[in-house]
Amino acid sequence: MIRRELKVSNRLGLHARATAKLVQLLSGFRSSATLEVRGREVNAKSIMGVMLLAAGPGTEVVLRVEGEDEQAAVEAVVALFERRFDEDS
């Protein structure tokens, strides 16, 4: 299992479009993934679950990925967060 702390740095936080990008990205991996915010943990492959976290800009999130392709999944998610979900240009 890989655990990674990330910060939501895009202007609108994990709103619908950003969440959809995250879930779509993770759906391409076989590993299971969870996101945790303020003690609440959800399936990171669930749009509704991630939306319920209400993670706004600056929110610290913990990503946990476990499975055969966990390293590649974590790297892809980290890159998405670093690109600010391709929203801020």
Automatic annotation (TrEMBL):
Entry annotated with the keyword Transferase: no
GO biological process: phosphoenolpyruvate-dependent sugar phosphotransferase system
Keyword terms: Cytoplasm, Phosphotransferase system
Compartments, as annotated in UniProt: Cytoplasm
Keyword Cytoplasm: yes
Database matches in InterPro entries: HPr, HPr-like, HPr-like_sf, PTS_HPr_His_P_site, PTS_HPr_Ser_P_site
Domain HPr: 1-88
CDD domains: PTS-HPr_like
One of the record's GO cellular component terms: cytoplasm
PANTHER family per record: PHOSPHOCARRIER PROTEIN HPR, PHOSPHOCARRIER PROTEIN NPR
Family: Belongs to the HPr family.
Record-linked NCBIfam families: PTS_HPr_family
Protein name per Swiss-Prot or TrEMBL: Phosphocarrier protein
Organism: Thermomonas hydrothermalis
UniProt lineage: Bacteria, Pseudomonadati, Pseudomonadota, Gammaproteobacteria, Lysobacterales
